[in-house]
Structures are given as structure tokens and as C-alpha cells.
Write a structure and sequence with these properties.
single chain, 117 residues, alpha+beta, 3 helices, 5 strands, 28% helix, globular
Length: 117
């Protein structure tokens, strides 16, 4: 089994750099909770899959860089930078944020909290 640090790094790389939405079904637990998702978002991986699919349509060249990562047990905190270009306007997109993730004993992400600037 991969270390939590590697699970998280691979998850973000596949999801946002490779645009591989199927990683959600592999890495996000069935009972996954995104504490920052709108209340109307479906539970589990479905909400993340929908959000990322829509976001990538607007920012097709989107990529993410993991700037820093701290791990303690099955908790991971990462400082991320999102970079892309808006499809319709051509406006650059750049956003920094902190994400805190909790993984279960099977190495799946069960919870997510975030703050972005």
C-alpha cells in the first residue's frame, strides 16, 4: 500500500494534470465527505467528479502543482497552486490553497477541508 503522501500526490496529478476523473472512484472512499462542497453536491466521489469535469471544461489547460506537503499518520496537508487559462475569455487563472485530507486504513481519502486565496 502507498504511503498517504504518495496517494495524495498521485491523486492530484492524475485528476487535474492528466484529467483522469476515474481516479475519484479509486481514491475517494464511498463515504467521502468534502466539507467545502455545496450542500447540493452528491455524497461520495460523484460530487468531485462533476465539479472537476465542469472546471476542466472551462479551464482545459488546468494543471496543479503541489508546493508543500506535510503528513502525520493518515492526515495530509498540502499547499497547492492551480494554474490555467479560461477557455472563453483567455484570462489567466492562478489560485493558491491549502487542502487537508484524511485517509482511511485502506489508503482512500475519506474527508477534505480546504481554503483558497
Amino acid at each position: 500500500m502507498k504511503a498517504p503522501r504518495e496517494v495524495v500526490r498521485d491523486y492530484f496529478h492524475r485528476l487535474l494534470n492528466e484529467k483522469d476523473i476515474s481516479v475519484c472512484d479509486e481514491v475517494l472512499a464511498e463515504d467521502y465527505v468534502d466539507h467545502d462542497a455545496p450542500e447540493s453536491a452528491p455524497p461520495g466521489p460523484a460530487g468531485t467528479k462533476q465539479f472537476v469535469s465542469d472546471f476542466v471544461c472551462e479551464y482545459p489547460d488546468l494543471r496543479i502543482e503541489v508546493k508543500d506537503m506535510l503528513c502525520e499518520g493518515r492526515k495530509v496537508a498540502a499547499r497547492l497552486e492551480w494554474i490555467g487559462t479560461h477557455r472563453a475569455s483567455g484570462a489567466p487563472y492562478r489560485r493558491m490553497g491549502i487542502v487537508i485530507l484524511h485517509l482511511n486504513a485502506r489508503g482512500q481519502i475519506t474527508e477534505r477541508w480546504s481554503a483558497y486565496l
